[in-house]
Amino acid sequence: MVKKLLELKILFFIIILLLYSAIASSFVSARTNNGGVNTLKAFFLKKYLGVFFLCLVTSTIFSQQYRYIRIQKSGTNITNYINLAEIQVIDIDGVTNRSLAGTATLSSTFTGGDASKGNDGNTNGDWSAGSVLHSGLAGANEWWEIDLGALYTLSKIKIYNRTDCCWDRLSNMYVMASDTPFNTSGNNAANLTAALANADFTYQFGAVATDGMQVVTLYCASSGNTDFETGITLVNFNTTINNVPDPSKVNGYEDFTAISTTVTQSSAYDLTVNVNTDGEYETFTRAWIDWNQDGDFSDPGEDYDLGTATNTADGPTFLSPLSITIPGTSTLGTTRMRISTKWDEDPSSCDNDFDGEVEDYTVNIIGEKVFFDSDGDGIFDNIDIDDDNDGIRDADEELSCRNSSVADVATYKFLNETFGTLAPGDRNTIPSTNYCFEPGTGAGASCADGETWILDDGEYVVVSKITGTVANDPQKHSW
Prior knowledge:
Layout: H1 2-25, H2 36-56, E1 66-73, E2 83-91, E3 103-106, E4 133-134, E5 143-152, E6 154-161, E7 173-178, H3 189-198, E8 201-205, E9 213-217, E10 223-224, E11 231-237, E12 241-243, E13 253-264, E14 268-276, E15 282-289, E16 303-310, E17 315-316, E18 322-325, E19 333-343, E20 352-354, E21 356-366, H4 394-403, E22 410-414, E23 433-437, E24 461-464, E25 477-478
Parallel strand pairs: 10-20, 13-21, 22-23
Antiparallel strand pairs: 1-5, 1-7, 2-4, 2-6, 3-5, 6-9, 7-8, 11-12, 11-14, 14-17, 14-18, 15-16, 15-19, 19-21, 22-24, 24-25
Helix pairs in contact: 1-2
């Protein structure tokens, strides 16, 4: 009975959808230059028939579902074997590994490296442990594929590398997902092209760290159409994402995930988006950032309204620049930022085939930095002008050290400070001087091991090589 009711509900939904589409199609001319009458009709049709439509049908969330996962070499490796420990395909619940019940296939098989080793539940990457898959050929486009047995809404694919050697084999790969079989064999470029054409989701990565693990997050597909020029003309976030796409709109979706920026928890950054409204029309623009890296944009605080724009070929949205504070609880590492602009109404993060455009970018989140208070005076050392509280300003100590007649080599450690009127990153340098970053307590690039004898005090500190002046360290002395 439940199944019968569900079938009736789906049939009813389809009938209403067809009715809505038939009526709406009579007003397609609303996006032409015929004037405001049709536009007004389209507006009321969208708004009020849409409300009627939603009242008739129980609210349902539609997410992209996949059954087939393929990992395939891009053809740019020195050695092109597929040689991996385990591939976990994680359900939308974030826990269930759907690959365990799947059927795996390899483009070719090396003795002892069967395809099933990739979904046997064992992440041990040592070949001698008997749980590492291995293709038999070194063709340019070798692949491993799994049929999950049914359609699932997925969140992540975790790829575990071999660990006893050959780590570079987990590099330069495509990860593809589809709801239909790939139905391709062989290991050449034509095979890869056919597989990519069949994929509903594609992700490409380059080098992976030694014996590391690659995590691929499956975000829902979203794309505008190319019927009109409505689109995004600029995305600027934290200055390092400063992308001006090709002004000629070619696609409804652009994958700019190779463009990234690094942000710090609890810090604020401006986001500016410019758009093309394609004439005297109004567009609505939103941004989403997956702060908890769970593969969707539906969690509280991940949706940002950038406002509207009207009658502009390349103008900022009404709320640009929008200040975005990175949540202190956000997950560290790389995540996805999605920008979408749409004619006449707000876009959703998974909209498709609409008058507008979608762009994806990468955001790298690092931890909030906490600094020492060396002298215990209640002022953190990255702000304190006299870190050791000896009555001599740090700047004067620096100057004294730099001007010393016996100092022939110096090493600078510093945080991302402005150093007076200089912008961050624009620092005066001294010839024959090595520079490195001082991160404080938290994530960030730091000086090399062996230089930890300098306090992470947040100030840039000069260390002079003064031969023989310090008994226990004749080579180094800190000021």
